[in-house]
Amino acid sequence: MFDPHQPLSLSKTMPIFPSNIFLRSSLLVFIFVLIGFKKVLSAEHSLLEALKYGDIIAQHDKYDTQNAGIKHFEGGLTLAYVTPWNNHGYDIVKIFKGKFDYVSPVWYNIHRRSNRYELSGGHDVDQNWIKEVRIEIDGQKRGKIVPRFRSEGWAEHDYKALLTEFNSIKAFTKVLVEECRKQNFDGLVLEMGIPTLLRDVIQELGDALHKQSKELILVINPKKPNTPIFTAGQFEDFSMFVDRFSLMTYDYSPAEKPGPSANVDWIEDNILAFTPTYRNRDKLLVGLNMYGTNFIPSQQRQQPILGNSLIQTLKKHKSTIKWDPEAKEHHFEYEESSIKRTVWFPTLKSLDARLNLAEDYSTGLSLWEVGQGLDYFYDLL
């Protein structure tokens, strides 16, 4: 009986190779179909809910090299965060360039010193890497460089001074816009305080960037208990001067209650909270975590677990992986030094569910961050 998982032996299946051209062509097509079917089985295996630790170990670093630059995600634009402390991310955006519309290196901190605003982190800028990442496909720019600028160590009085002191907003804006001009960035990502209290600052910055044909992406918090967020009306208001919104839909479960990083229903609730209609929904970049979370329930502690550590943990403990059908996320348990741990982490199956959700609602994606995940994740994008 023919076994499709074994190599096809013509000598055993057919005593004589047919001379008829039609039969020979049909047989070749049959062979190619079988080969293709085997590949599909292999690729789809990790998309199953009943995932085994061996599947991840065997496949995690095997990605589609021929189509690494082809974008499959049809929901909207994609943003990839890259951090200097995780250098693999720099390689990921080069390998899969074409899949990422924006690339945001986490380079800059904004400091307020007396009445001046200064930046740190410029030493990380790598112009040669920037040239390798940027690409144009069908007349559309991909790999736009939009570094993240974050207010570092700011206290309440710093924000108050920015809003009230004479020309403070203009001075703040000038520092950021000038750095973008000098480094030839395509814009920037701003992560700063509570955006709804900084409307005038953000509008001034957006207008100034737009005058130089550069873009502003604003980081916003997700809908969570005791966390201030935009209303739908404020989202629409800010959309007049903000090009995209990077929504941090991850870190859903607190340390004292181990659970998913981003429940799918919670992500959907956030999409509808900010954009109850399709108006401006294309500006929303739904956050996807590339890292997992390692919970220590007895100590009510948690810490991120990155791709490499995940693989080592699975190799060592050979844990049984379970699927949560409501959260649409995988998890497993193990014990180390007599301490029980629970790990929730992204997989091809969980990411596929979130990509489908984003496509259904026509939103974009923001990935935090691409150096933390497993290489084959990006085949889905």
What structural keywords apply?
381 residues; alpha/beta; eleven-stranded mixed sheet; five-stranded antiparallel sheet; 12 helices; 35% helix; disordered N terminus
* Distinct helical segment count: 12
Structural class: alpha/beta
Q: What is the overall shape?
A: globular
Q: What value does the average pLDDT take? A: 89
Helix content: 25-40%
Give the total of beta strands.
18
- Terminus-to-terminus distance: 39 Å
Enumerate the spans where pLDDT stays under 50 for 5 or more consecutive residues: 1-19, 21-45
- Major pleated sheet: 11 strands, mixed
Cα-atom Rg, whole angstroms?
A: 24 Å
* Strand order, sheet with most strands: 4-3-8-9-10-11-12-18-1-2-7
As a percent range, the share of strand residues is: 15-25%
Order of helices and strands: HHHEHEEEHEEEEHHEHEHEHEEEHEEEHE
What can you tell me about this protein's structure?
The protein is an alpha/beta fold. 35% of the residues lie in helices and 23% in strands. It contains twelve helices and 18 strands. The strands form three sheets. The chain has an eleven-stranded mixed β-sheet. Helix 7 (168-183) packs parallel to helix 8 (199-211) and helix 10 (264-274) packs parallel to helix 12 (348-361). Residues 1-19 and 21-45 have low confidence and may be disordered.
